[in-house]
Automatic annotation (TrEMBL), chains A, B:
PANTHER family: D-GLUCOSIDE 3-DEHYDROGENASE, UDP-N-ACETYL-2-AMINO-2-DEOXY-D-GLUCURONATE OXIDASE
Gene3D superfamilies tied to this protein: Dihydrodipicolinate Reductase, domain 2, NAD(P)-binding Rossmann-like Domain
Domain GFO/IDH/MocA-like oxidoreductase positions: 134-259
SUPFAM superfamilies, per the entry: Glyceraldehyde-3-phosphate dehydrogenase-like, C-terminal domain, NAD(P)-binding Rossmann-fold domains
Listed name of the protein: Putative dehydrogenase
Domain Gfo/Idh/MocA-like oxidoreductase N-terminal: residue ranges: 4-124
Entry-linked Pfam families: GFO_IDH_MocA, GFO_IDH_MocA_C3
Annotated source species: Mesobacillus foraminis
GO MF annotation list: nucleotide binding
């Protein structure tokens, strides 16, 4: 197949980074041919080093109808992901959406339906799935090395953001513009990996969110969620943008031991026999099963956004299986929506959630908002230090 | 002052260990002169290496009225701690109670009142307060090094117990005999240190307990508690006897950084400025306050039970301040009672809890119990591997 012509919609912080990767020829088999953004500031400057001609559009319909592209990368604000993806699929384009898949599962389910009907290649920018440490963790869990899971625990509080970050644009960290805070902007990666590596979706969520606790924003900047799984396992997910230095520690306890990912290491505390078996047969007082502490070797590079984009292009060109199929974006979002709903209702919620109820409650948040952003200074950030 | 004559009530696993320490002259200024236990098996054998004569009693009143003692160490099953302590104070004795202080705060408040009125030295066996790592943690937090606390998180799941442990006696892990499971038997140390090191008691507790999840018992063997503090900080406490290998990791996040106690190390991630100050003044996108990672040197030995007993004797003999005043036993128990109450009511509870309501609910658990212990084999365990 010939080179894939790619367009990018939404040239904010992340979009600029994607344009640079494509424009500098970092994605084999792909070429940047069009961009679209209602704000045209600095676009020419951004594109000056790009090989070949790039069409610049202001209007999304003109972009979708008139540009010469096979595939579109959508990096607009989150609310627009499903709507634009549905339009792109209707035009026969392949789609890669930035995370999160959207703001509410109702629209993401529609996007997934459109993707399926189109038969096009649909990916999502869960670039952390390219991280070999999480790939290895998933492989070990899925192969049964850890045995049945008992408990999961992710403390992911190293998403520190200052007030100036929130002040960098009008839409950010508002119910209307972004649809949420840390759960929608920073933590989607871990919400995805939490279920992707373990293969477990919670069946019940009881969550506690703090809104504007550490920043002058109306959405959440700290959450603690307690979950229960179908098999009886329990879990905790803690995230925050208000702590420095944060923690990124994912612990999974199972019948065959415990795995901990922290500081770029995967440590497997491996029992030499099943704990359930030991429990049933041991006759002493304070004994425990024998345990080996293993520093699991991690091979490969963290290819991040480039890895996901290359994989998406390879999937279009050669049928390579997707690392992050777009349809799976609904899973992390479902957990995220459940966390909000539990916090708003002040009660546990079962999954799958009532998508209509969530949508209705979100509209109430938007309509009842009287929050005014102060000190907004529209700024373009270098995103090389985040993901 | 002359040597303190000590009696020990309750010669189970822990009582035997205390008798051995006292009997072998390990506590300076103290001598073992009497023991009391309704079960007399092996008591003579236990006492054969003890210097001097030790009176052996079967009946608690005979022991309290007739024995030649100045001070009593109470290591009976938990329910009896307050009742026996009140009797001992009435006899003018100094008292050291094993943890937990009791099973419900209503009786512990009565014990504290009796202690205060007696003017005698009242200690509690929170031997982990002798651990220099927690002493140092407390010192750093109380001196303001960490700044205002934002979040606490203790994963204390390395209390593994097998079914054979629970089968070792009739009273263990029953509502009637012990009054609970991991919260009353294993985790009281951490429930104490959680509030002692931080100086913060939760104001609200929302907890999730699993009863007989990993063992054939009627009480809880896994809990997750979410708490909120007066200053807005949040916290998580997770404990279990069903995981191998468990985790013992205590993380405290504050305005000036983060402290983590794990694997016998205290790591202080110390910011060079206040996070709140940084947040208010920084103007960039993804910046964070500068952070130094410091391995805090820990001096001193873990003196454990011996340390608490020596400190109690020194307090009686020389007025040395107590490391673990008995009156403080109610704090950890209050959190423990709140965790049960929240789990039973399936709703958050405020602290201080309704002590009468807790007592009533506990009586319901006892009265409604139809649990029959199977395979009980009364065994004496060597407790040198636990605390």
């Amino acid at each position: 197949m010939s080179v894939i012509k790619v367009g990018v919609m939404g040239i904010g912080n992340m979009g600029r980074s994607h344009v640079q990767l494509l424009g500098k020829g970092k994605i084999n088999g792909a070429i940047l041919t069009a961009v679209c953004d209602p704000f045209q500031d600095n676009l020419k400057e951004l594109l000056k080093d790009t090989a070949g001609d790039v069409q610049i559009f202001k209007d999304e319909d003109a972009f979708l109808n008139e540009s010469d592209i096979d595939a579109v990368l959508i990096s607009t604000p989150h609310y627009d992901h499903p709507r634009l993806a549905v339009k792109a699929f209707a035009k026969g384009m392949h789609v890669l959406v930035e995370k999160p898949a959207g703001v509410y599962t109702k629209s993401v389910a529609e996007m997934n339906k459109a993707a399926k009907e189109s038969g096009k290649v649909f990916g999502i920018m869960y670039n952390q799935r390219c991280n070999p440490i999480y790939q290895k963790l998933r492989e070990l869990i899925q192969s049964g090395e850890l045995g049945e899971i008992k408990r999961t625990n992710w403390i992911i509080t190293d998403w520190y953001r200052s007030q100036s970050y929130y002040d960098s644009s009008e839409w950010r960290a508002t119910w209307k513009g972004e649809g949420g805070g840390v759960l929608l902007n920073q933590a989607p990666h871990q919400l995805d990996l939490w279920q992707w590596t373990t293969g477990l979706m919670p069946k019940k969520v009881h969550a506690f969110c703090s809104y504007g606790k550490y920043h002058d924003i109306e959405v959440e900047d700290e959450i603690t969620a307690y979950v229960e799984y179908e098999n009886g396992a329990t879990g905790i997910f803690i995230t925050s943008t208000g702590e420095a230095p944060g923690t990124n520690r994912f612990e999974i306890s199972g019948d065959r031991g415990k795995m901990v990912v922290e500081n770029d290491k995967l440590i497997f505390h491996r029992l030499t026999q099943s704990e359930r078996e030991f429990n049933a047969t041991y006759k002493g007082g304070f004994g425990k099963p024998e345990c080996w502490t293993i520093d699991i070797p991690i091979k490969g590079e963290r290819t991040d956004h480039q890895g996901i984009m290359q994989n998406w292009i390879d999937s279009i060109a050669k049928g390579t299986p997707l690392l992050a199929p777009g349809e799976e974006g609904i899973k992390g979002l479902e957990i995220s929506n459940a966390i909000y709903l539990s916090s708003w209702l002040k009660e546990p919620v079962e999954l799958p959630i009532d998508a209509e109820l969530f949508y209705k409650k979100l509209q109430e948040k938007i309509n009842q908002s009287s929050f005014q952003k102060k000190n907004v200074e529209k700024v373009i950030f270098d995103v090389s230090e985040t993901h």
